[in-house]
Specification:
Length: 241
């Protein structure tokens, strides 16, 4: 069924990278000789289910992405580089506004997640054919504490760990559902940190799909150390094939 649908992905890479403490966008930093963003794009480029790729970048970095990320890697599935907003939600909204009407299925992915597995992309899309909305993630390993309110250090609740997942990306939706969710969010003034939260707000159940613990989001300098280890491990796996 998925073969008869137009499938596109919005890859968000317009963040400010404040926690990375870097002079350049964290998705431009090289891991194993290749920019983080290029690693992420490559996975969707190599996935047979994906038809079109749209990258969302800071307005002042759109040309850089075209020349140094896409041009140097010959990504033929990338159809456009879209100027983002000052939040992730606004960036995805900009992407939705530029998305062609014939897109049936839409994935959203963080450009700072270079280690997403093609098998995970495929399994999330296959699950969408059974469910209405899908979020890749992993069960949490640590006990989570909730405090009374923002800024408080007093524990209010300790949720049952077996019920908790760490949300990752991609997140996968029927394109029309995500469009409706964003219209609703704009009308109600809702801000969320991921797209599945907005889809939940319009009453659509979201199904978790098992991802992998190496699908990390590059956020801090420490993440780069881990990323290099993952990259070397991946190269080692290829050498054995």
């Amino acid at each position: 069924m998925i073969d008869n649908m137009k499938v596109a992905v919005l890859i968000a890479a317009a963040g400010m990278s404040n926690r990375m403490k870097s002079d350049i966008n964290k998705t431009f930093i090289k891991i194993d000789g290749k920019p983080v963003l290029a690693h992420a794009i490559q996975k969707f480029e190599d996935c047979d289910y994906i038809d079109d790729i749209y990258v969302i970048a800071r307005e002042e970095e759109v040309d850089y992405v075209w020349e140094h990320i896409i041009g140097e890697s010959d990504f033929f599935k990338v159809k456009d580089v879209i100027a983002g907003g000052n939040t992730r939600q606004k960036s995805i909204k900009n992407g939705l506004n530029r998305l062609p009407d014939d897109v049936d299925v839409l994935l959203t992915h963080d450009g700072a997640r270079p280690f997403i597995h093609i098998e995970t992309i495929e399994s999330s899309l296959e699950e969408l054919m059974v469910k209405r909305a899908v979020c890749v993630g992993v069960p949490v390993k640590d006990t989570i504490k909730m405090t009374i309110d923002d800024g408080s250090e007093i524990v209010h609740l300790t949720p049952k760990r077996s019920l908790l997942w760490q949300a990752q990306s991609p997140q996968v939706f029927m394109a029309e559902d995500l469009r409706r969710a964003y219209v609703y969010a704009a009308r109600e003034g809702i801000e969320a940190t991921d797209d599945s939260s907005l889809v939940e707000k319009i009453g659509i159940p979201v199904t978790m799909v098992m991802g992998s613990y190496d699908n990390i989001k590059i956020t801090t300098p420490e993440d780069l150390i881990i990323a290099e280890l993952f990259a070397k491990s991946s190269e080692g796996d290829k050498d054995e094939l």
